[in-house]
Write a structure and sequence with these properties.
The protein is an alpha/beta fold. It has two domains: about 100 residues, Urease, subunit C, domain 1 (Roll), CATH 2.30.40; about 280 residues, Metal-dependent hydrolases (TIM Barrel), CATH 3.20.20. Helices cover about 35% and strands about 20% of the residues. Strand 2 and strand 3 form a beta hairpin. Helix 11 packs across helix 12. The protein is globular and about 70 Å long. The structure holds N-(iminomethyl)-L-glutamic acid and fe (iii) ion. The site of fe (iii) ion (FE) has 5 residues, from loops.
Amino acid sequence: MSVLVTGIGELVTNDPTLGDGPLGLLRGAAVVVDNGVVAWVGPAGRAPDADARVDVGGRAVVPGFVDSHAHLVFAGDRAAEFEARMSGARYDGGGIGTTVAATRSASDDELRGRLRALVAEMRAQGTTTVEVKSGYGLSVEDEERCLRLAAEVTPETTFLGAHVVPPEYAATPDEYVSLVTGPMLAACAPHARWIDVFCEPASAHAFDGEQARAVLEAGRAAGLDLRVHANQLSAGPGVRLAVELGAASADHCTHLTAENVDALAGGTTVATLLPGVEFSTRSPYPDARRLLDAGVTVALATDCNPGSCFTTSMSFCIAVAVREMRMTPAEALWAATAGGAVALRRTDVGRLAPGARADLAVLDAPSHLHLAYRPGVPLVRALDLPGVPDPVSPSGGT
Ligand code: NIG
Ligand code: FE
């Protein structure tokens, strides 16, 4: 079934061959969607016919957000930890243990319900692709079931057994690394596309460079591609390792050396910035300008998780990146769409051009600038189209 989307006041294609500038902007545009795929993009006056028509009434349309970093399979609540931080406590990843305990004792149905509610919350705010990590099970059985549940809602599933060392291995962290790289990886790899590790020698709970290397190399040998929680709390070895091993993305990049920036600029690893984390942990923001000016590919993601940043809102992250990190509105929108796609090595999302998935997000506003210009206002949602099923609730029940 084909659908003509018309009345698009401003269209962001992210394809410079289709429109102006790096965002490939078109005014007075239309899009034809055929069986869930973009079939035609151009001026409304030249649009071909279709089986159905949807008029968006002069609104702006952008590619659905690609949230390439999220931790959505968990139970429990850490609002009190947030409250303590706002009174001066520091974030060091220690609170992850609280979520692990709650997640282990939750049923599959509870975890599934919470996960689906968060994915629906994202879609209602314009996110159409999301990566989901494990990392709150930290036993073979619990990591396996968290990934099995994640795979019900997205193909972008990430094994994060090396999130922190769980309490039962506190005295023997290397034994835990052996569990992660052995039986846990074997149980989880069938449900995962990616492997990730919290590489952070500055945290007593996370993993140093050698442990992180062992995790990533084992994951690669099991057929998984690599991403890294890197340089969140200190200028540690995470970014260097991510670039050396050809990881798709180094995430956080809050503390970078000049050598780190050069390495990212010379490699293929995307720097995924997570400004909601600095906001919610009251930390200094990463130096996005330095990365962009050096030619590094930058993505923006929420890092939605119950500890360091509990937001599902990509438009919030865009607004913070523009206001606090001196990204231009165009750079921030590109990073939240096309940048996320590069970070997930996807070419079918993050752009609206023939052949891409028909993941359209519509703004109750005339231009994409309003994403940052009107912070905190719920302007953007994924556009439901006739004949295009919602990937999480194909019957349309979210
Ligand atoms: O990306 N730093 C490691 N992991 C998450 C936080 C997880 C948590 O605190 O529950 C992050 O910030
Ligand atoms: Fe994270």
